[in-house]
Amino acid sequence: MATAQLSQVPAISLLTTKERTGAIRIGEIISVLKGEITGLHIKQAFSHELAEEIATNFHRTPGLKERKDGVPGQYVGASHYRRNAATYFAEAESARPFVEALFTDLVDPVSALFDALKRELHRQGIELRPARSEHGQANLCRAICWSGTGMYSLEPHDDVAQVLGAGKDYEIPAVANNTVVALNFYPSMPEKGGNLRIWSHKPTESDRRSQGVEGTGYPYSTTYLEPLPYHDFELKAGDIALIDGGFVHGVTRQLGNGKPRLLLNCFLGFARPDLVLWWT
Q1: β-pair type (17-21, 39-43)
Q2: How far is 218 from 208, CA to CA, in rounded Å?
């Protein structure tokens, strides 16, 4: 009986975070991929002018859709969350023109990061490419905009559970054996709140079962997380954040100027020692 009770107590995992201002350093990105840094926050990584242009393109696009997966908001692109491979890659292919239109005539910060990362990994004998199947391949990113009204505008969750449950037709479940990195670019942020909160807890399969989130990683209860320390990344437009998505993380409630929280999001990680995949 004592063992059963102990299994419900979340273990504290070491949280290593780094925050700074300025240009992207590819070595730091690789450190997150290798699990050496849990969370990396780069402030003012791209200009406010570029951020506003991307946000304007997002709100004007005819490819805008409403989310129907329990998370409030709108999006452009495709998500692997609770999608089989055939559906996900078909949606990614049909959404590609709308994703590309977010960056029309702009210097694309997402492509710039991936191009630099690809060059450095290639020097190390490692391939970087989008996840793919016979149905197509992943887009560079997806754009998501929302404003929740509860305690969290995105409930606490982990990304590994979703990757583990993706299915045999995907390449991405192999990444769950390593570090599933969530990469976010922020073109628009509210004045206060809407920040990325990461708890010092990397749940196991047993932890997920105790919370009933084995297949989704969503949501972890506030009671479960209450004894755990956490770190908030206070984000602004033009920032970039990368985190180990195996740690429980969420988004705090938005306050302030009424601007929506808009991010460009993708995932990446080692599928093999010589292969890094990215997907959305």
Answers
A1: parallel
A2: 9
